[in-house]
């Protein structure tokens, strides 16, 4: 079994104090830092690019889990790898724009972990051609684009479907993960829990991360 990992999403951080926010969640027990990159095209929102990832790399000690919600990851992957992404995930919904296997293997050749993400209405069947090239599958439990949305229980069958297809890598879930949803997600087979609002909105972030970890561990 893959280890349980709590990955706070910096999308919910105070961007005027990013270094302190990174330190805060690392001290509070974060395993990975989840960075949401949006291009205003694949999703109707804009966030940040490689220069901000590089700045975060400069003050982080935990792995950077970079989630590309962009239409053309082929064009920008190297910039994010150069900036220090330790895991690089893009969306299977953009597979028609390039050779996804080639990009996943490129990420791996550069010594990083490669992932694909699926929107809530994309069947995991779409991942079948890529399963041997993936270290991580990021199951969206909200439609990509914004933090603070409500968890969609419809996606809970996806981790088990991935296992039935023979996928052996890590399974992450992203969107609406909180104390009230993390156990269902873990029970369904998730091992990486991305949480923005639930962690950054907590008065005691260490207690919140510990609570998520305890609930996930108990549910497995
Ligand atoms: C949504 C992002 C998520 C988001 C999670 O497009 O991929 O990582 O920030 O935020 P919460 O935990 O607030 O749903
Ligand atoms: Zn994300």
The count of helical stretches stands at: 8
Which hetero compounds are present in the coordinates?
D-xylitol-5-phosphate, zinc ion
Kindly report the average pLDDT value.
Answer: 98
Count of folded domains: 1
**Low-confidence residue ranges:** none
Estimate percent helicity.
25-40%
Q: What gross morphology would you assign? A: globular
CATH superfamily: Aldolase class I
SSE order, one letter for each helix or strand: EHEHEHEHEEHEHEHH
Rg (CA only): 16 Å
Please give the CATH architecture.
Alpha-Beta Barrel
Total number of β-strand segments?
A: 8
What is CATH's topology name? TIM Barrel
What's the CATH class, please?
Alpha Beta
Question: Care to give the gist of this entry?
Answer:
This protein has about 220 residues and is of the alpha/beta class.
Explain how this protein is built.
The chain has helices at 18-27, 50-59, 73-83, 100-109, 158-164, 182-187, 197-200, 205-219, and strands spanning 5-8, 33-38, 64-69, 87-91, 113-118, 136-140, 170-174, 192-195. The protein is α/β, with parallel strands linked by helices and 220 residues long. The protein has a single domain (5-219), classed as Aldolase class I (TIM Barrel, Alpha-Beta Barrel), CATH 3.20.20.70. The radius of gyration is 16 Å and the shape is globular. Bound molecules: D-xylitol-5-phosphate (DX5) and zinc ion. The site of D-xylitol-5-phosphate has 22 residues, from β2, β8 and α7.
């Amino acid at each position: 079994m893959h280890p349980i990992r709590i990955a706070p999403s910096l999308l919910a951080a105070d961007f005027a104090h990013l270094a302190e926010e990174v330190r805060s969640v690392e001290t509070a027990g974060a395993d990975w830092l989840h960075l949401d990159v949006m291009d205003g095209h694949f999703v109707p929102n804009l966030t940040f690019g490689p220069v901000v990832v590089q700045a975060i790399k400069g003050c982080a000690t935990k792995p950077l889990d970079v989630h590309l919600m962009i239409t053309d990851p082929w064009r920008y992957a190297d910039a994010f790898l150069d900036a220090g992404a330790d895991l690089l995930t893009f969306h299977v919904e953009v597979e028609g724009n390039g050779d996804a296997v080639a990009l996943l293997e490129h990420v791996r050749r550069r010594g990083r972990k490669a992932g694909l993400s699926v929107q809530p209405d994309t069947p995991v069947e779409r991942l079948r051609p890529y399963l041997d090239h993936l270290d991580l599958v990021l199951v969206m439990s909200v439609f990509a684009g914004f933090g603070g949305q409500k968890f969609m229980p419809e996606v809970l069958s996806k981790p088990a479907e991935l296992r039935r297809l023979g996928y052996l890598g890590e399974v992450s879930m992203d969107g609406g993960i909180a104390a009230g949803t993390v156990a269902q997600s873990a029970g369904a087979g998730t091992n990486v829990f991305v949480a923005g609002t639930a962690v950054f909105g907590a008065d005691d972030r260490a207690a919140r991360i510990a609570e998520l970890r305890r609930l996930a561990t108990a549910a497995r």
